[in-house]
């Protein structure tokens, strides 16, 4: 169960956020005012599910800094400050530290050091086991350092390849109860063979990044097939509009650190 979350207000520089257009037909610029309203609704939703949310102030130096999941990975016992691979995001790791110190002592906070790189969007926790995606943003050395850290706290980890795009959790997500939402490619990854795997239709791949919060699943608005799939599995659902974050490769899990 989650009791807390860390979020960060979108900055006006959001319109210059990184985009690979992996979920849009072309590069689109977000509407800042709409993004702020969507962010506020996202926080309201987390709070309605019992989370106490620390919402950090916007930082115009870092266009993508509302995606607080990437500069850190949080868990029971420790927090790991990652080392984002893109220069425009790397400074976010320093800015997340004061927020983490509200909840963790300095002895519980660890850092991925270069040449290791990591972003939290590549890290998926199932029970006390982490799946770490090796991608353009998370390299083998980053994954090795992460494993060295988390094993001290009773966790295990393994790496899986990310061959389709940006982050692991864009293409596979855990919904608890041994259920995974996956792409056709991730369905074939040996590490996931023992899960109940549900392939999301190609025209709704963005909706793979749905978010389990205390028994309820948040689902991006506008993806009826995936919404029905999740509801048919027995989960209560809430749809959340993240259209403006989608334009810069952002989604539901990216927008918060939950613990």
Summarize the structure in words:
By secondary structure, the protein is α/β, with parallel strands linked by helices. The protein has helices spanning 32-48, 87-90, 92-100, 140-150, 224-232, 243-246, and strands spanning 4-8, 52-56, 72-75, 78-81, 109-111, 123-126, 129-134, 156-161, 172-174, 179-182, 196-199, 211-213, 216-220, 237-240, 257-258. The longest helix is centred in the N-terminal third of the chain and has 17 residues, at 32-48. The chain starts with a strand and ends with a strand.
Number of helices: 6
Order of helices and strands: EHEEEHHEEEHEEEEEEHEHE
Q: Indicate the overall shape.
A: globular
How much strand content do the residues show? 15-25%
Helix amount = 10-25%
Rg result: 17 Å
Largest sheet: 3 strands, mixed
Number of strands: 15
Return residue spans where pLDDT drops below 50 for at least 5 consecutive residues: none
**In order across it, which strands form the biggest sheet?**
2-1-15
- SS-derived structural category: alpha/beta
User: What number is the mean pLDDT?
Assistant: 96
Report the end-to-end length measured between terminal Cα atoms.
Answer: 8 Å
Question: In short, what is this structure?
Answer:
The protein is α/β, with parallel strands linked by helices and 259 residues long. It contains 6 helices and 15 strands.
